[in-house]
Design goal:
The structure is a homotetramer.
Chain A lengths: L2 E2 L10 H9 L12 H14 L5 E5 L2 H12 L4 E6 L3 H4 L4 H4 L4 E4 L8 H13 L8 E8 L10 H13 L4 E4 L3 H5 L8 H7 L2 E5 L9 E5 L8 H7 L8 H12 L2 H22 L4 E3 L5 E7 H8 L2 E2 L1 E2 L7 E7 L6 H12 L6
Parallel strand pairs in A: 1-11, 3-4, 3-5, 5-6, 6-7
Antiparallel strand pairs in A: 2-8, 7-8, 9-10, 10-13, 12-13
Helix pairs in contact in A: 1-11, 2-11, 6-7, 12-14
C-alpha cells in the first residue's frame, strides 16, 4: 500500500473531528457562525491563547483568511511587509494585490524575516524624501512555522513584535501549520506567547486535523472593527458556520489540536533522523512536520515506487529537491515503510 | 420539540452525503480538486446537464462563486445587470463592487427580470451619446429560483437568453437553490434547458443537501479561460478539494439532488396550502421551497412558541412579513406540527 | 459665427488665468504641489471658505477627485450614498466601483436628495437583521449645484449635514460647478456655509474658468489622513503641480472665481427668461448656468442652424430635451443671437 | 541667479507650446478629446512613429497612464513583469496594485531588464507545478530611457520583443522621457523601431516640453479594445481634452519634440564631460538627460550655494549620490555656471 507524504491535506479530518460533525449533523442552528458551537469553539480558543479579550473569527481557508485580514488591517495607501518566500507573495495567485495592496518583500532566511531587516526597511522608507510616492509599510506578515518548516524563537518574535509596535504597524502571523509549530522540537513559542506578541494571527485547522477551517485570533480588536461584513464581502462566510464551530470545538476541547501537532512532528523527526543517518543532509533544518532533502534522482525514483511526496522545485539533472510532510494521518508504520524503501535503493544505477 | 423553517441551511448535510464523506475520510488524494472524486462529480454533473463539453468547477459558497464568476466574465469597464432584488445587489456585502464592478439594476418582478426590460436597458445605453462615460452592461445575472422563490418559465428564459446573446453578453444564473427550482410546481425548466440557455450557471449544494459547495457549470468555456487561478485568487480554492467532489458525487450519482428538491417543494406546498385554506394569502406566489406570508402579529407570536422562521423585513405594527423555508431536513411531521400550531392560535388578542 | 452652449468646458481658460500661466511659465519650482504658488492658492481658498484649519488639495479633474476622496473616506465594507442622478452613479464609468465601493442610491428630486430620505435609508439599514450582509452607508455624496443645475438651500443642507453627523458619516459635496451654485438666483448658500456643513467638498476649476483643476477642501482633516499618497496612487498628482496653484491663485486672488459665476448665471437667466416669455417651460427650474427645455423638434432644428447645444437624452419623436449651458466664455451677444434664432423659427413645418 | 537641475518638470511648457495654447484659448471645441486638434496631434504622432494603423490616446500624467494601460492589458489573474527599479514598482504609490495586479520583479541592470532573464522567468514559471497558484506574467513593462537614464539598444529591444511575443505577452514601454532617449548619445533606437517592437508605449510630454500630457501609442489595438471608458474610469479623461491635442500638435508639427530632446541631451553631456574631466566618475553611465554622480559632501555643499539638484538616496557620511537633470529650459549658460561652481570648490574642508 502506498504511503503519502505529499502534504498535510491529503486525507480528510481527524476521526474525532468527523465524529463530532456526524453527531451534530441533524441539529438545526442559526447560520453564519452565530450558533452555540461556534461560541464554544471561540471560548476554547481564547482559553488556549490565554487571552480572554481576543476576538475570534472562523474562516474556511488560508488564502481567504490572509486576504481578508490583510485587507482589513491596511489603509488604502499601505502595503504588507513579508518575506520573499511568504505564502502571500508566492502562492496565493495575487489575492493580496487583488484587494489593492502591494506585498513589500524582505529577504527570506530559511523562510523567516529578521527583526533588524524589518526595522531597517521601515527606517529607510521614511528616510527617503520621496516616500509619499511609495507604498507605505502598513503591517508585517510572517508565518509560524514558515513555508520551509522553520520556526521563530521567542526571542526572535519578541524582537519582531517590538519593531512593529515601535513603528505602529500590526504584526500578523499566518499559522496555517500552527499546530506543528507549537510542537516543534526546537521552538520555545507557546500559543500564549503568540497571542501576547501578535496583533492578529490564525490557527490553521485545514492542515491540522479539520476538514477545513482557520481560526483568526484578534488580540487587538480595535484594529479590525467591522470584520464581519468584510468576511462576507470576501466570500469567506460559511452559511453553515457551525461546521467550523463544531470542528474547532473538537480540536480544542481536550487538547486534540496539540496532540495532532506532537504526533506529526515526532514522526517527521523520525523520518529526518533516518535520512540523516543514511548520509543525506536536509537543505533546510526544519524542526516541524515538513522535511526537505536534496536527493540523488535514483533514490527519488526508488522511493516513488512505494511512496508519494512532492518535488520542491523542478527535477534537477542529477539530484532533486523533495519534501516530505507528515500529518495527523501519518503513522509509525508509514515511516517504517519509507525507511525500508530508503534501505532498499538499488546500488548501481 | 421545536420545528425549523428559518432557512435551508440550518441543518448539516443529507445523511447520504455525510456517509460518503465518512467512508472516504481516510483516503489520501491530491489537493485542490485534482482528485478522482472531483472528476467523477464533474462528469455526473455534465451528464445531468446534457452538456458533455461543459467545464465544471466546484467552489465552496454562493457569494464567493458569484464574485469569482462575475469577475472572470467581465472586462474592467463593464458591470453586471441584475434585478434590484438580486442577491449580488443586496446581500453580498458589496462583493461584486469589491472586485471593481458595478451592479446595474433592473426592476424586480417578484424577483425576476423581464427580457424586454433587459433589451430596453441595453438599447437605451447604446443610444445615449455619453455611453462611453457610463458602465457598460457586460453580462446578465439572474437567479433560478429567485430570492423570492419564483421561477422563470422556459419561454421566459429563452427570451432572456436571446436578448443576451443578441447583445453579445453572457447570461449567468445563480442556482443557489437550483434543486428546488427544478422541482417547482409551476416551472417547466429542466437542467438541460438551463445548460442550453445560460453561458454559466451554478448548481447550489449548500442549500440542497451538502455541507457546503456550489458547482459552476460553464457551457461556454471560451468565456472563462484561466478560471483556476481566479478561483485561487478569490480564496475560493479548497485545499481538500475532494470534499466537494465526494459531496457532489453523492448528490448526483443516483438522483439524490433531485429527490431532495422534490421532497422539500412538496412539503412547502403542503405548508402553503394549509395557510391559504385558513385564509392567509402569500404575498409572493412561490412554487418552490420558500413561502412568504404577511401574518397578523398574534399569529406570528403563537407560531413562534413552537416553530422558528424568519422575519422578512422588520416586524410591522399589526402584521409582519415572514418566510418559511423547507429543506432536505424537513419532514411531513414538521408540517403537521406547524399546521397544528396554526389551528391553535388563540382567538382573542 | 456659431454660438456655443454645449457645456462649460468648451473653451480654454479665462484670459486672466491663462495670463498668469504665461507670466510664470519660465520660473522653476519644485514639483507635485510643494511650490509657493500652490501654498498661496490654498491659503486664498481657506480664506474664501472662512476655514483657516481646512486642508486643501489641488487635483486635476472631477471624476478623479471624486474617486480619490471617496476611496479615502470609506472603509472597505462601506459604500457611498448618492442621488440616483448623481455624477458618480451615472457618468464616471464606474470609477467608484473600480476602487471597490458600491454607490447606494437615493431618489433624486431634480438632482437633490432629501435629508428625510437619507435618515430613513440609514435607519432602515440598521433595522434590518441582515445588515451585516449588506453594504453599510459610509458617507453621503451630493452635488452643489446638482447635475440638473438645482441648488440646495441653507436649510436643506443644514438638515442633511445634521443627519449625516448624527449617523457619524461624512458629508461630501461635489462642487464641479460650485461657482455657478454660489451665484444662483435662488440659493442662499455661501462658501462659508458649505465649509461649515460639509466634511469635505471640492471647488471646481475646470468648468469655472481654469484650464483644469479641482480644489478639495477638507474641513475635517482627521477623516482624510494620508491623502497625499492616495492622490499619487490614483494618478491624480500633477508633476508640475504649480500649474494648479497658479490657476487657483488667479481665480481666488481678486474674486475672479465669483465674478465668473455671477456673469454666467446672469446670462443663463436671460436665456431662460427669453424661452419662458415665448411659451416654453423648463423641465427643471434651474437657478444656475444650466437650462433645460423640452422643445419641439422644428425649434431644435432651427436653433441648431446657428447654435450648438446638447441633447439631454435621445431625440424624441416630436419634442426633444435639450440643455443650454453658459460659462465665463459666454457673452450677452451670444444670448442676443440665440434669442434672435428663437424668434426666427419658421412657423409652418 | 540660481540654476536648476532638479528635474525636467520644474519649469512650465516650452514657449512654442504655451503660445499655441494661448492662440487657441478662446476657441470652442467639443470635450474629452473628440476635437480636431486632438485628431491632428494623433495623426502627427502616427506619422512620427511610421505606424498609420496605431491608435493614439492622450492622457494627463505618467502614473495615470501606466495604471490605465496596464489595467487594460492584463487579465485579472495576471501581473506585470518589470525591473525592480521600474517606476511602477517603486514610485507610483501602489497604483498598479490598486487596480488588482501584482508587479513581478526582474533584476535591474542599470535600470534595464535582460531578454534572457525575461525568458527565464517565464520558462521557470510554467515549469513550476504550482504555477496556477501563482501570478502569471501577463505583460512586460520597461522604460526607455530608464529611470537611470540608460537606454536599450535596438538589438536589446529586438531580443526583448521577441521573447515577449514568443510568450504571447505584450511589451509595453514607459516613455516618460522618450524624447531624451531618442536623442541619446549612445542609443540607436528610433521612434519607428519602438513602434515596430512594442505593442503599446507612451511618448512623454510632461517632461519634454508640455505643461502635461502623455501620448499612448497602441500599435496592436486588438489588445486594448474599450480603452476610452477605462480612461474615464481611471480619472484620466481631461474634460478640455483639446489642451492635450494642442500641445502634442505643437510638439510634433515641426519636430519640436525631437529638438527639445537633442538640446537637453547635448547639455547633459557637456555637464557629464565637465565632471569627468575633473575626476568624478558617474555611478551610472547615462547617455541621456539625467546624470548621476557620487560626490564628496564638500563639493555637494558648494554646488548647492548656486545650483539646485536632487539627492539620489539619502546623504551619506562623506559622499552623496546626486542627480542633475536637463530639460528644454536648460541653457548653455546654466552649464557654464555649474562648471564655474565646480571649479571654485574650496580646497580645504
Amino acid at each position: 500500500m502506498k504511503i503519502y507524504f505529499d502534504s498535510d491535506y491529503t486525507a480528510g479530518a481527524h476521526p474525532q473531528v468527523l465524529a463530532r460533525l456526524a453527531e451534530t449533523n441533524l441539529l438545526h442552528t442559526v447560520g453564519y457562525g452565530c450558533d452555540s458551537f461556534t461560541d464554544r469553539a471561540k471560548e476554547l480558543i481564547r482559553q488556549a491563547c490565554g487571552c480572554p479579550t481576543a476576538e475570534v473569527h472562523l474562516l474556511v481557508g488560508g488564502t481567504q483568511t490572509n486576504a481578508t485580514v490583510i485587507d482589513g488591517l491596511l489603509a488604502r495607501h499601505q502595503g504588507v511587509l513579508a518575506a520573499e518566500s511568504g505564502h502571500i507573495n508566492v502562492h496565493e495567485a495575487g489575492a493580496i494585490e487583488a484587494t489593492g495592496h502591494k506585498v513589500l518583500t524582505l529577504p527570506s532566511h530559511d523562510g523567516k524575516v529578521l527583526a533588524t531587516e524589518v526595522e531597517e526597511y521601515i527606517r529607510n522608507f521614511y528616510a527617503d524624501d520621496t516616500y509619499q510616492h511609495m507604498v507605505a509599510p502598513g503591517m508585517l506578515y510572517i508565518s509560524q512555522p514558515t513555508e520551509l518548516g522553520t520556526v521563530y524563537t521567542r526571542a526572535e518574535l519578541e524582537a519582531i513584535s517590538e519593531v512593529c509596535h515601535a513603528a505602529h504597524i500590526p504584526l500578523y502571523i499566518d499559522g496555517a501549520r500552527m499546530g506543528y509549530g507549537l510542537a516543534a522540537t526546537e521552538g520555545d513559542l507557546a500559543l500564549a506567547d503568540i497571542a501576547r506578541l501578535a496583533d492578529v494571527f490564525y490557527i490553521g485547522g485545514t492542515k491540522v486535523g479539520a476538514l477545513f477551517g482557520e481560526a483568526v485570533v484578534v488580540t487587538n480588536p480595535a484594529l479590525l472593527r467591522n470584520f464581519f461584513p468584510l468576511i462576507k464581502q470576501h466570500g469567506a462566510l460559511l452559511a453553515k458556520g457551525r461546521l467550523l464551530g463544531v470542528q474547532f470545538e473538537a480540536l480544542f476541547a481536550d487538547g486534540l489540536y496539540f496532540q495532532i501537532g506532537c504526533q506529526a512532528v515526532r514522526l517527521a523527526q523520525r523520518l529526518k533522523k533516518a535520512f540523516v543517518e543514511r548520509g543525506y543532509t536536509p537543505f533546510v533544518n526544519s524542526p516541524t512536520n515538513q522535511q526537505f532533502f536534496r536527493l540523488p534522482n535514483n533514490v527519488v525514483d526508488h522511493l516513488l515506487t512505494g511512496a508519494s511526496f512532492e518535488f520542491w522545485g523542478p527535477r534537477g539533472l542529477t539530484h532533486s529537491d523533495v519534501r516530505f510532510v507528515t500529518s495527523w494521518a501519518t503513522t509509525d508504520s508509514d515511516i517504517d515503510q519509507l525507511v525500508a524503501l530508503l534501505d532498499s535503493v538499488p546500488q548501481n544505477k
